[in-house]
Structures are given as C-alpha cells and as structure tokens.
Design a protein that fits this description.
Length: about 650
C-alpha cells in the first residue's frame, strides 16, 4: 500500500472549487459493473498511557492491558488485509502511573517526546483525536506532547478564545488502495475528531479563558460542508464520546449516536465509555443501535474497550458507483488481548511487541523506582473490597487527609468558623475494570504506588460551601449507585447498579447517615431529579444531632466535583478555595507527617437494615474472602460471573 498523501483543511478549501469544476467537465462513462475494494479500519481508544502490560499499583505484570500487546493484534490484523488504516480515538496522555511520573516527576519540556507518543509513533497510525483526559495536565503539556507525534491529530469542537480551533478540525488523506484484482485506486479519506464539551467543566482550571468547547453535532454540521468540497470517498468520525440513547438536547457527553445521524458521516469510531461495541450489554435495546452488527443508525461503528484491552476492527466492502466509492457492506469485530476462563483465569491472546516496549523502557523503569519509594507506614491493611456496601478504610484515609489539609487553610478565611467535612469516593471497586480492580494494601510500609492506588486521578483540591440541605441532596445523588430493593420479594435482587460509576459514590465524612435502598433514587443517571418524593438518606446528623438544613458547611472535594462533574446538586454553588495541590499529594504529605497511619473506618454511614427474608447480593473480588469488615453482615454465595464472587447481605 502506498504511503498516504494528506491534506489539511486549508489545502482542501483552496482546491475545492477546482475539484468541483473538474468533476462537472468530466465526460460520462458507459455503465459497467462497479469496482469493489475491501478496506480494514483499526481503532485504539482510551489507552491512558498503558504501554507495558504491567500494573504499577500491584507492581506486577498484567496481561489485560498495554499497547505493546494491542500492537501484536494490530500487526496480525494488518497482515490479513490488503488495505488497512489505523486510528486512535483519544485519552492517551493521562491515566497510568507512567503518565503521572512524566507529568509530575520527570516533566515534559518542548522538544521532548512523551513515552506514550513514542510508543504510538512505533505503529502506523494514520490519524488520532483528543480525549477529555488530554487536558488534565494543562495546554502547555498537551502542546509539547502532540508536537512529537508523527501522525496528525484532529479535533473539531475545541476553539481558542480569540478565534480558531485548538488544533486542525479535520484532515483529508489521498490514499492508494488495491482492489481484489490488484488494481490500484486513489481514494480520498476524510477524518474529523470530537471530544466531550464537558472538558470545560472537568478541567476548568486548565481551560477557562483559554479555549471553548462546543456541541459535537453542532461542530460536525459546521465542518461537513467544508469536507464535502474535497469530495471524500469516505468520512470517518473519531468521536471520543460514547453511545447513549434518548432525544438530542445539545451538549451531550455521549453523542456518537446523534453524530451518526448526520449525512456526510460514513463511519463512527467511538470511545470514552471504556466499553466494547458491538456486544456490550449496556447497548442493548437502544433505538438506532444494532449491538450485533455494530452500527449506529445503520452506519458502521466500533468501541474498543480501554487500556489497550481490544483493537477495534471495522471491515468495509466498498463499491464505486457514479464516480464515488460507497460502503456496500461491513463487519465490526473488536478483538481482545485476553480472555477470562470460567474459573477466572486470564488467558493472554497476544504477545507484547518488543519494538513498542523498547520505546518506553527507560521511563517504565524510572516509574517503577518512583512508585516504590516509601512514604510511611500503615498499622492496618487498606482495601476497597466492600467499599460500596460499608464505610471503608480506603475512603477514610482520603477524608482524613483532606480535612487535615483544608482546616489550616480555612482558618485564614471568613469561613474559619464553619464545620469542615470531606467528600471522597472508592475509585477502585471492580466494575468494568474487572475483579483485580480493587485497592489492597497490607499493613506495613506504604509507598507512593499505594497512595496512587487509593487515589487514581490527578485531581486538585477544591473546597465548597454548602448548606445542610445541599449535603443531603449530594448524598441522595451519591446513593443512586444502589438499585431499589423490594422487601416483598424473596428472589435474588442485585444491590449495585453497574451503570453508576464508583467514582460518583461520594461518602461525606464528618456527618453520619444511613441509606434506605427500599426507596427509589431521587436522581437518575444524569443527575436529574426524577423522584421528588423519595428519600434514601435517613438519620442524617452532625455531631449526633439531626442536621440543620439551613446551616452552612465546608466540604473538601476535588476540582472534578466542584466544577459540576457527576452533576451533583449544589456542588458548584460556592467554591471558596481552589488549592494548587493534587488530592493525591495531600494524602502523601499526610502520611509523611503522621509517619504511621491507622486507617480504620469510623462507620459514619451504613445501609439501613433489611428484613432477613430479602435476598440482596453484590459482587466483589475472590481476594475479599478473608478481608470482610467485622461489622458487615454478608456471606459469599457463589460465582457472580466475569471473575467476581457474589456476596449476600445478612448473616
């Protein structure tokens, strides 16, 4: 296959009128059987700086992650196809300890190559787009990272304040392909990229007054007429946005389905949700989604998991009719780098590519040394196996560190007399990431890798002022992680809603409360009030007395929550402190100052007891068997599937 010749938006606009005129003057040809050509599109997404198949938190190899393994499947998929193109769908610069090491320890200066970019440069990427996490370390870091990429990166819905897009919105590639008879044809492949507009909330501190983000569909409608001037044979949308149903209202975080409706979009490569499409259960029953064929409104679409778990494969059969190539048929088949056997064993389906590993060898080894640096001692083990059903030490240590950090700062403000509370969530609690995705730190020395295991994200500390009523609603939104339990039923009822992210299950320390799961959730998955008469939060108290809903409180949280992340009611009303420090660094400092910590849960919250006749279950890791809190009444009752074990609440 010949190397592609690519054209930027500016090149295409200059040539557009001439191309159109030439087409109008061309003489008609006799009708004949259409030429046919097969083209394989390959996709990675949500790599999150996972290059080496290694879990830096467990400090052990991990066959479920890593671009080095995905590269092996990419290589095999390309060898099977006469024509192929490889794309990345964003979220590549942040997300693993390797990424944090580069951002916070080593640094990234102009002219230096980020290890993730170095690894991606070792593969034949045609084009990529930005994900929301590309903005986590600021625009300068992003600019330095992208500068060394040996493939173009496009994004159409982020504009600079003052004019122009942050990077080029789209690009067209003039590419030579061979049909099944070996005849070469020149095709014009247009690629346009998108990112969730919510980046303006999630990374407000990095982006405010510097860029703006617009609706994904609006951005597509803005640029598709320009792309049409180039007469593309195929227009591919790199949509770092997930697949969700419902009526379009504008500004959707997961807008891929709405994007696919547009004329001019031929293929949608999606991501962001960390799911697999087609085949993921989350996509069943959504109008316009074919979860078997792999299509959105009839157009081929794919989502290839996360952390390098899959390579997305979209096989197109193209026919040339009326002078233009069109999709006659397609097949979508995401390929995994591993499979899990019924007895929960991980079986690798790909070997790591040595050439990719070599690009990050030095940075990988430096990350290991960095992560192994001890910072103190824990007198008790810290794990998150039961963090969704009982107060938990992995959340408790975050709460204690955040309060210790914020109290001296607030003492210097007009809010010095207000009670200081802390909101934190159990980031690692299984879910889509599998049964190994839990915090598990033994008693003894505690290292940076353990702190990063407790607090995954590079959030910064922010403090908000809220009322007692807002605290109640904050907790009501958090309690949406639970399914409603019917006490009249005796058959098994799952307690946890798998579609609710654990990072939105905030526990507020400094108050006490129970959660009544027999009530409906007041808020839906988008944070909208849907059951005004329902109240899951009961016995909410401060210092042993019912909370005064008119009283004012200080809550220490993070920039994601304080800027509206998760759509929690009241969290972005009054931000009284935007601290410069990472939540994770606050925990490290707390441990260093204490030297020895005793992260025992204070049991400030619990589930309201249910009748013994109710069969309520939840999944956790097989490793949890000997680590259940003494105060939690729950028993293992069998296999929960996907490598998890099932527990039943009650003695």
């Amino acid at each position: 296959m010949d190397r592609a010749r690519s054209f930027s938006r500016r090149d295409t606009l200059k040539a557009g009128a001439a191309i159109a005129a030439a087409g109008a003057l061309a003489s008609p040809v006799a009708a004949q059987a259409p030429a046919k050509l097969k083209l394989r599109l390959l996709e990675t997404s949500d790599l999150h700086v996972n290059v080496v198949p290694y879990d830096y938190f467990r400090d052990a190899p991990d066959d479920t992650v890593g671009l080095a393994k995905t590269a092996n499947l990419i290589k095999a998929a390309q060898a099977e196809a006469r024509n192929s193109l490889l794309f990345d769908n964003g979220d590549f610069l942040q997300g693993s300890s390797l990424g944090d090491f580069v951002a916070y320890k080593k640094g990234l200066k102009a002219g230096e190559t980020h290890p993730m970019i170095a690894a991606m440069n070792a593969l034949p990427y045609q084009c990529g787009t930005l994900g929301n996490h590309e903005f986590n370390y600021g625009l300068d870091f992003l600019e330095h990272g992208l500068a060394r990429a040996e493939f173009p990166i496009v994004c159409a819905n982020v504009d600079r304040v003052g004019g122009g897009t942050l990077i080029e919105p789209w690009r067209i590639f003039e590419q030579s392909f061979e049909d099944e008879a070996g005849t070469k044809h020149i095709l014009n492949i247009a690629v346009i990229g998108f990112v969730p507009p919510q980046i303006m909330q999630w990374d407000k501190g990095n982006l405010d007054r510097k860029v703006t983000a617009i609706d994904i569909v609006d951005a597509a409608q803005k640029y598709l007429p320009e792309i049409a001037l180039a007469h593309p044979d195929l227009t591919i949308a790199l949509c770092h946005s997930g697949i969700a149903g419902g009526e379009r209202k504008g500004g959707e975080e997961n807008a891929a389905l709405h994007l696919a409706k547009l004329d001019g979009i031929d293929v949608v490569l999606t991501g962001h949700q960390h799911l697999v499409f087609p085949g993921g259960k989350a996509f069943d029953g959504i109008p316009g989604v074919d979860n078997k064929k792999g299509s959105l409104h009839g157009k081929p679409a794919c989502q290839p998991g996360f952390w390098g778990s899959h390579v997305g494969i979209v096989d197109l059969e193209l026919e040339k009719r009326d002078g233009r190539w069109r999709i006659a048929d397609f097949k979508v088949d995401p390929k995994p780098i591993y499979e899990r056997t019924p007895n929960r064993k991980i079986v690798p389906k790909a070997e790591a590519e040595a050439a990719v590993l070599a690009t990050v060898k030095a940075d990988h080894e430096a990350t290991l040394s960095y992560m192994r640096e001890p910072v103190g001692t824990t007198s008790a083990p810290i794990n998150s196996y039961f963090a969704l059903v009982a107060d938990d030490p992995s959340v408790q240590i975050v709460a204690e560190a955040q309060i210790a950090y914020a109290k001296p700062l607030m003492a210097q403000t007009p809010y010095k007399d207000l009670p200081v509370l802390s909101a934190a969530a159990p980031f690692k609690s299984g879910g889509r990431a599998g049964p190994a995705f839990f915090t598990d730190i033994p008693a003894g020395p505690i290292a940076i890798k353990n702190v990063a295991d407790i607090y995954l994200y590079p959030n910064t500390v922010q403090v908000v002022k809220v009322s007692g009523a807002q605290i109640r609603e904050w907790l009501e939104r958090s309690a949406g992680i639970f399914n409603q339990i019917d006490v009249a039923r005796t058959e098994e009822q799952p307690l946890i809603n798998p579609g609710f992210p654990a990072f939105n299950f905030d526990v507020i320390d400094g108050v006490s409360y129970q959660i009544d799961v027999t009530q409906a959730s007041r808020y839906d998955g988008d944070g909208k009030l849907v059951a005004p008469g329902a109240h899951r939060i009961v016995a909410l108290a401060y210092q042993g007395k019912p909370i005064d809903e008119k009283a004012e409180f200080i809550v220490v949280t993070n920039n994601y929550r304080a800027s509206g992340g998760g759509n929690f009611p009241g969290t972005k009303t009054t931000v009284v402190l935007e601290a410069p420090d990472l939540n994770r660094d606050v925990i490290v400092r707390y441990i260093i100052e204490k030297k020895t910590i005793n992260p025992a849960a204070d049991n400030n919250w619990s589930l309201k007891p249910l009748p013994a006749t109710v069969n309520v279950t939840f999944p956790t890791s097989p490793a949890a068997v000997s680590k259940k809190p003494e105060t939690l009444k729950a028993q293992p009752v069998g296999d929960a599937g996907e490598g998890f074990v099932k527990y039943r609440l009650g003695s």
